[in-house]
Specification:
By secondary structure, the protein is mostly helical. 77% of the residues lie in helices and 2% in strands. It has one domain (2-173). It contains 7 helices and 2 strands. Strand 1 and strand 2 (131-132) form a beta hairpin. The longest helix is centred in the N-terminal third of the chain and has 40 residues, at 2-41. The protein is elongated and about 65 Å long.
Amino acid sequence: MKLTTAYLKINSVFEKVEKVIAVLLILSIVVVVFAGTVSRYIWNIPIFGIDRLGTYLMVWLGFVGFQIATSKIRHIEVEFVKARVKPATKYLLNIISSFTAAIVIFIFGILSYRYTKISFEFKDIDTVLNLPMWVVIAIIPVSFFISSIRFLFIALLWNDIRMGKRVEADIIKKQLL
C-alpha cells in the first residue's frame, strides 16, 4: 500500500505537469494556426511550413492527452462482463486487464523507441521545417513508457481494493478510477 500511495502522489504531480503542457500545446496550436490564417488570407503571404508545425503540435497534444486519460484510468474497456460479475471477480478482471495493458504498451514503447533511435541515427529531417524528426516522434515512446508504468500501478491499486486495503469509492472520489 505504501507503494501505491507513493504512486498516487507522484501521479498527481505528473498530471499537473501534463495539464500545463497540454494547455501550452493548445495555445501554441491556436497561435500557429491563427498566424498561418492571417498571413495567408489577410497579407497574402503564406508562412512556409506553418501547417506542418501545427500538425506536429497536434501529434504531441494527442499523446499528452493519452497520458492524461491514462492517469485518470479513462481507457477503453468492455464493461458488459464486469457489470454482471461479483465485485471480487470485477477487481480480478481489472487487475488482469491493467497488467496486460501495461505489457502491451511497454512493447509498443520499445518498438517506438527503436524507431525514434533509427530516426536519430539516420538524421531524418523534415525538409520543410528543417526539424529533426526524432524531436517530433520522441513523444511516442515517452508516452508509451509512462503509460505502461501507470497501468502497472493501476493493477496494484485494483489489487489493494481487492485485498481490502483501499476502498473503491475513495479512489473514485479522487477521479482515479
